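haha ok so turns out i had the wrong file open the whole time. this is the CORRECT one, sorry everyone. sequence first:
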Amino acid sequence: MKRIAILGAAESGIGTAILAQKEGWDVFVSDMGSIKDKYKQQLEAHHIRWEEGGHTESLILQADEVVKSPGIPDTAPIVRKLIQQGTPILSELEFAQPYSRGKVIAITGSNGKTTTTTLIYYIMQQWGVDVGLAGNIGRSFALQVAEGDHDWYVLEISSFQLDNMYAFHPHVAVLMNITPDHLDRYDFEMQHYVDSKMRIVQNMTKDDLFIYWKGDACVQHETEKRKGGYIAPATTPSSRPAVPGNPQICAFEDTDFEQLSLDFSLMGQHNKRNALAAYMATKRAGAPEEVVRQSLRTFPGVEHRLERVAEKGGVLFINDSKATNVDACYVALQAMERPTILIVGGRDKGNDYSTLFDLIREKCVGLVYLGADNKKLHDSFDQLGLPVSDTHSMEDCVQACIQMARPSDTVLLSPCCASFDLFKNMEDRGEQFKALVHAYNI
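then structure:
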């Protein structure tokens, strides 16, 4: 019996464990932290061995394969040892796909992937096909394969997941854009991050379709490189080189939205691009034209992404907590139509904030910094001459915004940074913001 060790006992790890056991693997799950009760209950119900609060190296290092949570970096001591001895390290999606009958629409990109993924899933549901939502969103892909496989899957895929995917094969792939993000994970080498995103095409064939926005010069350039046979080196120490793939290409342009006479429920030029990508992907899957168009008109949007929270005292509050990099904040500011107080801050990922300066001068009437350490924000933004406020909790942040705002202003939480300095995750950050906004009387 082949042995598999799973590092990280959250959604993807538990799903992998259950699928692996079903397929005859000897399974061991190990988490350096504590495991949530709901996941412990699933492990116990399936009689799967597990541990928390540390790693038993003898059990992990003897595994034939290891599936690790995307959030665990290669610098973790146990991962370094696995790399040194040559143990294959996979992502959940890589492990699970061979056991599924379903066709895959896979979406990645620095920004827009959650909205695009959710929109494609919504269209497929409206069409009435048997479809699952998974990847970096929704329920574990592996668990869905184990408990009730689908005909189609719509998968949001991060660069961290792509790093440990080698034979994974999407039938339709969407790459929204590539802008600097997570560079701290890639030794601050942009090309490593770029190569990670481009791994999505590595196993695609002439029967598959690769969709991207032609206005992204980086994606256009990298696509041309791969047409020439470029083999990308490993993106991280636990990864492997990636072959170029040979898909059909569909590169859409902004003008296609008007030429196709599309109508989309969400604001902003970037959301028109998301709509175009979803239109192309679902049409390729076979969705009827009218179903696609009607779904674009009725799509309710995504929580924590330009989410209207409330309007109080003439001040509109928008939750864009999912904007964890500079480019996401940029497109959010572009969509603002009222004087804006911008909330920025969190765990910096090597951000260059200078690309925001002109837009902030144009759109913003104040800045509120929210982070454990706001020094880099002060060094970057104070020079713009706008009113600023320094805060270190969401309660203080919302209070500062209310004091700064005037009727007809917008308060935009679009932080540019990861949330882990003060919050559990970006959802926690957004939920706290919404709760405090609803609690205040202006």
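The two ends are 64 Å apart (CA to CA).
again sry for the mixup
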